[in-house]
Amino acid sequence: MRILLKTFGAALLGMAAAAHADITIGVNIGTTGPGAAIGIPTKETVLMWPRKVGDQIAHYIVLDDASDVTAAVRNVHKLINEHKVDVIVGPNLTPNALAALDAISMAQTPMLVLAASASIVAPMDEKRRWAFKMPQNDSLMARTLARHMQKTGIKTVGFIGFADAYGNSWWEEFSAAAKENGISVLADERYQRNDTSVTGQVLKLMMRKPDAILVAASGAPAVLPQKTLVERGYTGKIFQTHGIASPQFLQLGGKDIEGTYFPTGPVVVARELPQDHPVRKVAVDFVERYETVHGPDSATQFAGDAWGAWILLDDAVRRAMNQGDHQPGTAEFRSALRDALETTKDVIVPNGVLNLTEKDHQGFDERAAVMGVIRNGKFSYAAE
What we know:
By secondary structure, the protein is α/β, with parallel strands linked by helices.
């Protein structure tokens, strides 16, 4: 497996040895494999991170886990044991993040995850004390989606999702949200991220004749069920999750995804948000930074989460450094950083406002979710 390793900070400036207070941040993401559509914009954003975090020179070490669970765990051990990182950012896939919990809890190293499922940080236990999460919980997005469906007259829904933790989480959260909004979920079908056909599952869904179908998937693999539904003549509405917001999804989906509704973080539709939206200023600022480097309409939910990770760490590191005479590279600093992350208050990031607590290591509220729609081949704001 090809591993990407890049250090920034003092080395980037040609400086000699690292100062005593320098911070080492390990980043483990899948820039190859089925999750690459998520991992690539994440890595592109990491390359944009400032050279300092909390006024301390930062060294960033980036590894590719190839979207593989075993590789993700191996990389996390490498970052902890060989590179002695103070904090890990990633993984960006739910199964990989769940698999890394044992390693970070044993090493008592905080991990700022870029994957979606709430199961990464809840229910809180000794392992999850060291895990924090940037993307919105599926429960928040599922509620936003179910309310939209109810308002637009959807009564019955068929479900097709990944046969892994992402799909399982969405099934549980959407089923609950649908029930609260008087919507019946008629069927549950699953598929693997690397499948090349879902015809059997789609035909079973269509036999139930639901008003709408929800595809609970992320990145490029989320296109397959929708294209199959269109090819087979399904005429109901098709919804997706917030995991689709990447240029690859638009490119692969083409005309077959036009008109698709999906819950999303504010950054995806930043410029179209109401002027008084509390996240708009920070979201637009990031979008403009990102598009300056990568071109128009290139910013994604995943890129926004990665930029938010730096904002969160910048705030937490400042506070951790003020909690005592403990230096980066020590167990005491890692513990202080964990505590600082857990007490984050009103930090605005491109996808919401963070308020973290001992019981909530995600921290977003309703300000972190809006409805989007694919219009003219672009992600657009769907005003409710």
